[in-house]
From TrEMBL:
InterPro entries: Cyt_P450 (IPR001128), Cyt_P450_B (IPR002397), Cyt_P450_sf (IPR036396). It comes from Mesobacterium hydrothermale. It comes from the Bacteria. This is Cytochrome P450. Belongs to the cytochrome P450 family. Transmembrane segments: none annotated.
Length: 396
């Protein structure tokens, strides 16, 4: 297509951030049908909602860089993390953490350890009572597993959860609110002090963790990058398994036939994939356009920022029948909840193992008659990250 025949990207001024936080899926359904490439002034980006387009952008990193200049991530992390790097520079840093994510290590090291953690955390849930699984299980379980994977087991669950949220709030602090950066600065100082101590231990006594792999490498990446990439994993390794677990449970409780099938036939892997497809824990990722190009016949200029909405891609009618429903029996089809291309989630297999193979079967084994007494109280929220804000269940 020549430049002359390309259309301008349409603009939608009606879409505002509060609507994207409370009910994004209605917006995405309309956009997929009417304007799959659309400029949204409220988010200062061009939004892409079709699966083919989000995949195309994520896979073509030379044309669509991860170094989104609009997010204050560098300010929040006081570093340029691997998530915002491209090409060889990105690969070197990602490879540095890779030994901790190898299937052999997951099976031999993290699976038994995470099973112990799950036994402890499920074991302390009070039978017969109603508890919020967000605060009482999903968040602390995700935090504890992550401390082991990263090599910082001295960190408390509460600190991990606070650091993670502080980094996320800082990276999303588009308005530059000083207090949010003061909090992220304080969290960075606390994390740096802990990492110094843990790095010394890992050098003296190496283990399978990401920190140990990085500090003991033959040709280590700089310490600043080791620390900032541990931080990116803290910022991105708690919310997603937490929200995925709560979403899957909500989907099962509100579809009792599917829950019954899961319990009788151990369909936890299918429940996991369907849960993350249905409500992708990371809903969207942005990319910087490096050269003039086109998407779906629209001119996209160098310097624009495109937002790939994997949440919408995961509900694209081109790929799924009845995409808005939670249905663990739907035919297998690849989804984009873990992204695509070089930045494909490094924790994918760990998350699957933690939830589908450990937590979900154990939870229903211990509490086979667990119920969600009032599904109406469960509210999903979030534009960048999304999941239930609470999940009050009765444990029986
Ligand atoms: C259900 C759980 C999870 C989901 C849905 C999820 C989703 C994602 C997505 C969509 C991305 C790509 C972002 C982009 O393209 O810009 C990503 C990247 C990443 N995830 Fe996950 N994630 C999950 C769990 C985890 C866990 C447990 C870890 C453990 C540390 C982790 C570590 C990472 C890292 C390090 C990256 C950056 C990879 C890179 O930039 O090369 N994730 N994740």
């Amino acid at each position: 297509m020549t430049t002359a025949t390309l259309a301008e990207v349409p603009v939608d001024t009606s879409i505002q951030i509060p609507q994207l936080q409370s009910d994004p899926y209605a917006v995405y359904r309309r956009l997929r049908a009417e304007a799959p490439v659309v400029r949204i002034p409220a988010i200062k980006r061009i939004m892409l909602t079709k699966a083919a387009d989000t995949k195309h952008v994520k896979e073509n990193w030379e044309l669509f860089s991860s170094d989104d200049p609009l997010t204050p991530m560098k300010r929040a992390f006081l570093a340029h993390t691997l998530m915002r790097k491209d090409g060889a520079e990105h690969k070197r840093e990602r490879d540095a953490m890779a030994p901790a994510f190898k299937p052999r290590v997951i099976k031999g090291c993290w699976q038994p350890l995470y099973t112990q953690v799950a036994e402890e955390y499920v074991g302390r849930l009070p039978r017969g009572e109603t508890v919020d699984l967000f605060t009482d299980l999903a968040a602390p379980f995700a935090a504890r597993c992550l401390t082991h994977l990263l090599g910082i087991p001295e960190a408390s669950d509460a600190d991990m959860i606070r650091w993670s949220q502080t980094l996320i709030d800082g990276a999303g602090n588009f308005g530059g609110v000083p207090e949010l950066f003061e909090k992220s600065d304080k969290a960075n100082a606390e994390m740096d002090a802990l990492f110094d101590a843990c790095a010394e231990r890992a050098k003296a006594d190496p283990d399978q963790s990401a920190l140990s792999a990085m500090v003991n490498a033959d040709d280590p990446i700089p310490k600043s990058q080791i620390y900032s990439n541990i931080k990116i994993a803290i910022g991105g390794g708690i919310n997603e398994p937490r929200d995925a677990l709560l979403t899957i449970l909500y989907g099962l409780f509100t579809n009792p036939d599917q829950l019954a099938a899961c319990k009788s036939d151990a369909l936890w892997d299918a429940a996991f994939e369907e849960g993350v497809r249905w409500v992708a824990p990371i809903q969207a990722s942005s990319r910087l356009v490096m050269e003039d190009t086109e998407i779906r016949g629209h001119a996209i200029a160098k310097g624009e920022v495109v937002m790939t909405v994997q949440a919408s891609a995961c509900r694209d009618e081109d790929l799924y029948d009845d995409p808005e429903s939670f249905n663990i029996f739907r035919p297998k089809a690849p989804h984009q909840a873990f992204g695509n291309g070089p930045h494909f989630c490094q924790g994918t297999h760990i998350a699957r193992r933690m939830l589908a193979q450990i937590m979900l079967p154990m939870l229903f084994d211990r509490f086979p008659n667990m119920t969600l007494p009032d599904p109406e109280v469960v509210k999903f929220w979030g534009f960048g990250f999304r999941g239930p804000l609470s999940l009050p269940v009765t444990l029986n």
